[in-house]
Amino acid sequence: MRLTLALVAAFLGGYAAVYGLQRFAPEEVLAAVSFGLLPHLQEEEGAETGFGEAVREHDDDDDDDDDDDDSPVALLELAEDERVLIFPPGVAEANGVVAAPVRAADWVERHTGLGTVLDVASLLRDIASLRGTELILGQSEARLEPLRARLERLRQAYDTGLVLLADVDLAERALRDEEMVRAEQSAARGRTLRHIQHTWGTYFAGAAADRAPLLEALADRSQALVQAALPKRLDGREFRVEVRNGDEVRLAQPIGPGYAEVAGMGPDAVLLLADGAGLRPGLRVEVSFVATDAAEPGFVLPAGAVLFHGDGIWVYCDLGDGRYGRRALSGLRRIDRSWFVPDSVLDPDARVVIRGGQMLLAEEFRADIMREDDD
Question: Is the pLDDT of residue 35 over 90?
Answer without folding.
Answer: no
